[in-house]
Amino acid sequence: MKNKLTNIFKNWEFTLLAILILEFVIFGSINPKFFRIASIFSNINNYISICIISLFVTFVMITGGIDIQASSIVGLTSITIGVLWNDAGLNIWMAVAIAVLLAAFCGALSGFFIAYCHVQPMVVTLGGSFLYSGLAQVISNFSKIPAYQGISGFPGKNANGDYISFRFLGKAKLFDLIPIQIVIYLILIILCYVLLHQSKYGRRIFLVGDNPKAAEYSGINSRLIIFSTYVLTGIGAAIAGILLTAQVDSAKYNLGSTFTLSIITAVVLGGTLTSGGKGSVIGTALAALVICLLRFGLTLCFNISSQNLDLPVGIMLILVVSLRQINRIVHHLD
Asked: Rounded to a whole number, what is the largest CA-CA distance in the chain?
């Protein structure tokens, strides 16, 4: 029993692949519409912001931290783009660049308090979630458009009806089938994989999470490493906010406010230890896909409303954390 449990967690990515196949078998046998490629791509596209943020939160959690403010930065990015473009009259790409810089600053601010002031990550990012959502609401007040309506009408379409400019990021499709946001997500997976698993920077992240003192003795500036992961998460949240705004054609201060549970679940389910030192970009990507297809399948096959889908996601999070704790206890008793 002990060896089986240990082997499962050593090959967790294969376990996630098995879960994915099981989802296709179960949901597909109940409702053949589950196998429609266009529907699967559309559902993944609707979930893409969570998938993107999860990649970057993986970096943070490997260092032993946590980030629950990213969903607030999504809304902050969205409303900043809308107000700068619609009310300040800036070029849309200039507005996007400023929003990304603001999001990076938000991540840097929280990262500074965590890395250099040694404040608990949970406390800092919880405060950050309130601070940045409040800041987003303040920025929305500078718009002539009521906050509840959202700022829309972003550019645009050309005379042929093709998506161009900003809306291209949200609505364009490759080969008239694959949403461009999924293509962007795949590129981000590759970039994050190389950064975390194939670079010195990535090895330093793992060492800092596994043994901070050993990292310092090895000449690694662990505070800078921890600080940088929160900056990356801020940028990741900004990318998600940009894509989500372009997809729904609406800039709102509370966009993405419900993402936190799904983000943390995807990272933990992907194999990242909450105590730090272990994690995987591929595992997180697979876990995000597992959650995405679970929500899609439950809605399609069992008519479960979207308001009730957090329940199975929460159960999945508790189950995975519990199994990992049992695995640690069994391994310790060995």
From this structure: 69
